[in-house]
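Minutes, project check-in
Item: structure for the 222-residue chain
Input as provided by the requester:
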Amino acid sequence: MLAGPRGFGLDAEKIAEITAELADIHALGVEVGVVVGGGNIFRGVADQAKQMDRVSADNMGMLSTVINAIALQDALEQRGVQCRVMSAVFMNQIAEPYIRRRATRHLEKGRVVIFAAGIGNPYFSTDTCASLRAMELKADVLLKGTKVDGVFNADPQLDKDAVKYDEISYMDILQQGLKVMDLTAVSLCKDNNVPMVIFNINEPGNIKRVVVGEKVGSLVTA
């Protein structure tokens, strides 16, 4: 999403759009943690990484998320929102190391926390990182911003007859093998009963609509 219409790199307008929405929900008094991916720069399982060692490719992907996190931090701070980047890979010159208690304290002080570098290990997706951080920090809900309007029984970009679920259980997603989110991440949320909302992040205003309780996207619960 951060790449905008070009499909790669960083798009200043898109970053401004997303950080404006994050600033809006922060102004409501909501504690906001953000897990950011790196697919706009490099994705470990993408075509360009097919000839690479998986660990090396995933490490490059994790570093890409740090670039995105710093871009979001800068844009948020320009809007007057205090923000911290916490990285699962130690790089103390540019980001704080991820420490759960420190992250909790930042949130309590009203700072937006951006979690970068996934969980610091290869073979784990950004989705899995989001689920793990949500559980560690006792989040009320995990919001998954994607490019479709929620959970469908088929890929809506390929099947015009795909049916959207307004509500669905974790188990149904796992049993049907729906690709809306990494299945490891879904299993983690299921085991710890963290509700999820899957929604279209490209629709302006959707983040705030979800946070204030409007019926947007698909709700995933037990």
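Outcome recorded: Residues 140-222 form a domain with the Carbamate kinase fold (CATH 3.40.1160.10).
No further action items on this chain.
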